[in-house]
Write a structure and sequence with these properties.
By secondary structure, the chain is an alpha+beta fold. The chain has a domain at 436-571: Heat Shock Protein 90, CATH 3.30.565. The chain has 14 helices and seven strands. The strands form two sheets. It has a five-stranded mixed sheet, covered by helices on one side. Strands 1-2 form a two-stranded antiparallel ribbon. A hairpin with a 2-residue loop joins β1 and β2.
Length: 572
């Protein structure tokens, strides 16, 4: 059996009683009380002995109790709620005691009963029987609520233990009442009650009242609790009529009490039977629903199969079309890959050509700068010296003032020509970059920028003795040069911070000004190639250039140029 779930809350042992069941139980108890009150005054009225009544009553009682015990064990196998075994054991014990009571009844099958014993045996079996059953009810009432049940490791063991204990207890009590009847206090004298029966009946009756109180005080009230209260009421009336208010066997109390006992025995059986009928009805309804759902599933399955066949046909057609489209797409992808490869090759070649062109320009500018500095500037300087000598040589001679003024003018023009030649040579290619290195060239550039623009410029070089190989030194210098030129032309700044930092695998150039700034998202003005030139120079050495700016917040230009050794460049 599987573990109980919320579906198991259809049993009377787990259902909460409704108002209708409460009224039914109250009516049954009220009817029992009314009948008991009506019969009690006449309980000692002697009636004609009907010996067949005893075996018929006891047989019905035993059958009812056996069936009730079996149904409780069946519910335990579903719910795994151990308190049900108290009731199962109690009813099984009652069935065994009913059989023993019948076999020991004097004069029924034998003068002293089939089991032997004595005149007290039947009476003591009755007292033990009616005293032990309420103990089982008390055990049930004191047990856990149905919500606290749990599946035992071996469900058959508790049920088997319950059966063995119930039968063993009945056998022990039967042995005490038969083999040990001589040691038991006399409670019957022939067919009449003896004096000691008052104390025995009082104890038995009190046990039943205690069991009734335990059931009433039980907090987890279920429908089974309600029916057991009705059963105990009938059981109490049974004892009252059969052993308290009657006088002897076969009087009105004797018959009425046993009828109460039969009602008490069959009441729960009837309730459990109706419970099972409702369960079977639910099973049948569930089976009908399952069959209907199965037929619906079959219909839906047939529809799904038809739809599946149609879908497979459409999928096959679509797959063929997609296969053809895929082949066309693969051809187009191959063409695009070839075009992309050609584009990458073209870009690589273009970069190489641009790098070669840039290098050639730098070399040509270096050559022109060197020639201007070494030849033209020197020639002009020599002319300036010769002009000074000429003026000195004729200073003492008679010459007109016009000639001297022309010599002074020539001297001034030669000075301007020398200065212009050196400036043009420096702009083309500062010789300090080739002669003294990157740091000296950068310092010269910053000083020259401050002199020409009047803008304060702060230079930071890390480390102070930074040296860069070509083409990185030239690229970094030119990017800085163009950045400062852009600041001087457009930024309207008052302060510029220049930082050059060498990292293990790259050099970082950062130029930040406090000028007017601009919006980088706006398209550039026609004829303005300053930023484009910066990006192109960074691109030629595989660098990354970023520009941060906003109107009124200045501009920050940061360039990351990866450094590679000569070996790396040769391998690439």
């Amino acid at each position: 059996m599987g573990e109980s779930t919320d579906e198991a809350r259809v049993f009377i042992s787990t259902l909460q009683p409704a108002r209708r069941e409460r009224l039914l139980a109250l009516g049954a108890v009220a009817g029992s009380v009314i009948v008991f009150v009506a019969l009690a005054p006449f309980a000692k009225t002697h009636l004609t002995p009907v010996w067949a009544f005893v075996p018929i009553y006891q047989s019905a009682l035993a059958v009812c109790d056996l069936l009730t015990a079996a149904l409780f064990i069946g519910q335990f196998s579903i719910l795994f709620w151990r308190p049900l075994l108290f009731l199962a054991g109690g009813y099984l014990f009652c069935a065994c005691m009913a059989i023993a009571h019948t076999l020991s009844f004097p004069g029924l099958f034998a003068p002293t009963g089939v089991l032997g014993g004595g005149a007290q045996t039947t009476a003591w079996l009755y007292m033990m029987w009616h005293g032990a059953f309420p103990l089982a009810i008390i055990g049930y009432a004191r047990a856990r609520s149905p919500s606290e049940r749990g599946r035992p490791a071996a469900p058959w063991r508790p049920a088997l233990t319950c059966i063995v204990l119930a039968v063993s207890t009945a056998c022990v009590m039967t042995a005490i009442a038969t083999a040990g009847h001589a040691w038991l206090p006399p409670i019957m004298r022939g067919s009449h009650e003896a004096g000691a029966i008052v104390w025995v009946v009082s104890v038995v009756w009190a046990l039943n009242f205690v069991a009734l109180a335990a059931l009433i005080a039980r907090r987890a009230r279920t429908l089974l609790d309600l029916w057991m209260i009705v059963v105990l009421c009938a059981w109490i009336f049974d004892i009252a009529l059969s052993a308290v208010f009657n006088h002897a066997r076969f009087d009105l109390g004797f018959y009425a009490g046993r009828i109460y006992g039969l009602i008490a025995s069959s009441f729960v059986l009837v309730a459990l039977t109706f419970d099972n009928i409702k369960l079977y009805s639910r099973v049948v309804q569930a089976l009908d629903r399952e069959r209907a759902e199965h037929r619906l599933v079959q219909q839906r399955t047939a529809q799904l199969n038809d739809a599946k066949a149609q879908l497979e046909a459409r999928v096959a057609a679509r797959t063929a079309a997609l296969a053809e489209s895929n082949r066309d797409l693969m051809r187009e992808v191959a063409e695009r890959k070839r075009a992309e490869a050609a584009l990458v090759l073209s870009q690589t070649e273009l970069r190489e050509v641009a790098a070669i062109g840039s290098s050639a320009r730098e070399q040509e500018m270096r050559r022109i700068s060197r020639e201007l500095h070494d030849e033209l500037a020197q020639t002009l300087a020599t002319l300036r010296i010769e002009a000074d000598r000429l003026r000195e040589s004729i200073a003492g001679q008679l010459v007109d003032n016009g000639m001297e003024r022309r010599l002074v003018g020539m001297r001034s023009l030669l000075d301007d020509a020398v200065a212009s030649t050196r400036r043009i040579a420096s702009d083309l290619r500062p010789l300090v970059l080739d002669d003294l290195g990157f740091v000296a060239a950068t310092q010269w550039l910053v000083q020259s920028f401050m002199q020409r623009s009047g803008i304060e410029c702060e230079l930071t070089v890390e480390p102070a003795d930074l040296e860069l190989d070509e083409p990185y030194a030239t690229a970094t210098f030119r990017i800085l040069q163009e950045s400062l030129t852009n600041v001087a032309r457009h930024a309207h700044a008052s302060h510029v911070a220049v930082g050059v930092r060498r990292e293990p695998d790259r050099v970082v150039l950062k130029v930040r000004d406090d000028g007017v700034g601009f919006d980088p998202a706006r398209p550039r003005k026609p004829g303005s190639f300053g930023l484009a030139g910066l990006r192109e120079r960074a691109y030629l050495v595989e660098g990354e250039l970023s520009i941060e700016s906003a109107p009124g917040r200045g501009t920050t230009i940061e360039v990351h140029i990866p450094l590679r050794t000569a070996t790396d460049r040769a391998l690439s």
